[in-house]
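Query form — protein CIC11C00000005607

QUESTION: What is the three-dimensional structure of this chain?
INPUT:
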Amino acid sequence: MTMDPDLHNTNTVFVEVPVTPNPNAEASAPVPEQETKDKVGHSPSGSISSVSSSESTEKLIKSLSMGKLDINKDDEPPLEPFTVSPIQPASPSVSSLLPKANNTPKPIKFTVRKVSRDTIALPETGKAQNKEREYAYGNLPENREKAKERKSAEKMSQLQYSQAKYDQYAARIEKINKEVNFLTNLLPPYNVEIDYVTRTKITKAIEKLRMKQDEIEKKKYSLGISISRLWREHDENEIFVRSVSGEIDSAPLTRHSTNVSELSRILTGLRDDYEQDAAEFELYKSRPVPEEALIEQLELVSPKSERDDILEKLEQDDHPIDGAFAFWQAVLAMLMVFSTWGANAAFGVFLNYYLTTNSFPGATQYDFALMGGVIVFLAQILAPMTVLLVRIFGQTPVHLTGICLQTLGYFLAAECTKLWQVFLCEGVLVGFSFSLIFIPGTLVLPTWFDKQRATAMGIAVAGAGLGGLVFSLSLNKIIQETGDQRWALRMVGFITLAVSLFGGTFLRVRTPKKSKFKDRFNKDFIIKNFKIVFDFRCFDNYPIITVGVWFGVVLIGYIIILYSFSSFATSIGLSHTQGSNILAILNASQVVGRPLIGNIGDFTGRANTSVAISIYVIILIFAFWFNTTTYPALIVLSVLMGSAVGVGSTMAQALAGDVLAKMGRHEKLPAAWGGLNIIVSCFCLPAEVIALKLRRPHSNHAYAHTQIFTGCCFLMGLILMLVCREWLVRKTFESRRSQAQETLNSRHNMHLRRQETPEVEDDEEKDNDQLLQARVERYDRLLGGLLIYFIIRMFYPLRV
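ANSWER: The structure tokens for CIC11C00000005607 are given below.
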């Protein structure tokens, strides 16, 4: 059907239906208007009945759907007329229900994303179409000059803003340096009146300032690189992306984020932790030693007159901190250790003599071994009590008392004829004297040193190895010439008397106490000092107990090696002289090894050093000592073993300080120091007895079981230290995660003022936020509660 265009003015509705052409039929003539009106039934009123419309529509749709509509059929009944009521809404248009043949193409919508500045080229030739269209709209010569000037102005403005920001960073760093210097001057040794709690708060404040300074330094460095890049761009020396036509594109090369591999993410995390370790290194290195913390805590309960005298003495003192006189005091403290632990290091010579001779009838080998254990037991367990005696009576009376007991013990032991007599003299009296002699010396050193404190303590503890070297060689020579141990004991008494008197005469406290004796010898003063030293509430957690047990187990192995090396040499066919030489070499190696272990621990982490040394000693015991049968091999073993076997006494107190620092309980360090001495004394008492009990005298390998037990002691110590290390690493992760999250929260809550050209600052802040967010996510993973994360934290490369 077709629709006459003249009928548009009428109200008659026509339907245009696409018709398939019939080649056999003739072309249909157009239908006259009047005839069409008669067929359709045009109503003058201009309306169609709604009822008829509904019925007609249904019929029409049905005929169309059945494919029966054919205009060539003459017998098709005409459509029934229908009208639209002016009152009721019209029914849907019939034409809208029929398919429309619309061949008009739809318009294509597009959006201009970028205006090309390259030359417009023809697809066929690749050349420009004409001179008028050689440049795009934004690349016209006059527009290019304006854009270049505008871009140059923008870069200059950005440079000025970045340079101002760089100067602000430099000013903030200088301000932080002044604040750190001011706070440092409030700490000892510049100010000894400050209490330990306040000192801890100031130390934490310095730590935060240092970390803030490091963060600003990183920003300053990053901003400096950005400024350098902007200057190069301003001078048109930057590398640009070049177009095909050789023109310079104005946009420099940019970075795009890519997918980071798992290995790269791990390496990035390790590098981030390494940078944080470097930032915290100075605080870690300057952490106070137990003796220093003990002095500071005890000064809190000193009478006011005593503190005034200390401040007056500091003002008049002409000997600087870390100076030559301070190192002279370290040498004197080494002489105190030489007279005590150095002389005890040569006890293996006496033990070897007692085991191979019948000097005291009825005595067993276990009696002599127990005597050596008693010396170490009393020296360790009485150390905290000696501190109280020094506080009450002063350094000199306590020191002289110790010298008298030691000299009396050695001289009386030379005259003893029964076992209980030599046990009382050489065991009990000498053990009592040890703590009274060396404790005052170790308490003096922290008052003279600040930056070189670790070196000074290393010099002092080196006296143990030096004394072992001297006494091991001389005692064996005297025993061989005299035939017994009597003159050897007298010689030890003479040497220790002379050395101890010399050291005690020139050893001087930097802050001498002038308070009256009645102010110190009273109930309140004694109780306050007793609570400081014997406050065992610091042992209410497993890490500090782990350190104590580790110290005890490792010290058992140390005592067995120290007391058994000489007798082991004779068991494999060597002479007594060779056995004493082996022991001397072992002690000489400690002179170098102990200070070296302390310095390595300060740089690489004390727990890390303890783990590494434990593994090293285990390898030496099972792989070297177990298979040693010749004198040269035993000499090499003595050198290697002596440099590391004293790791327990070198690192235990420092490890306790690290654990308490992670717990935020620095003030408990003196109590931890006293508690560790008490714990380890219980391990020292049966150490050599166990070693001799495991010995098989009639076997070809008499010390095989002893060697296995010693190796197991260090293996147990390794396991305990790994557990302690896991705790230290976990606490470090928790602290760093909390700090990173706190920084992120503060940045999110901060309303930054926007500048006109904030691109550099925005990129910098975005990078820092991404770094902190990645740090938080990494620590969340590493702090997982699964066993695999526990093992990862044990071996995670971190300075702890």
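ADDITIONAL NOTE: Residues 294-506+516-727 form a domain with the Growth Hormone; Chain: A; fold (CATH 1.20.1250.20).
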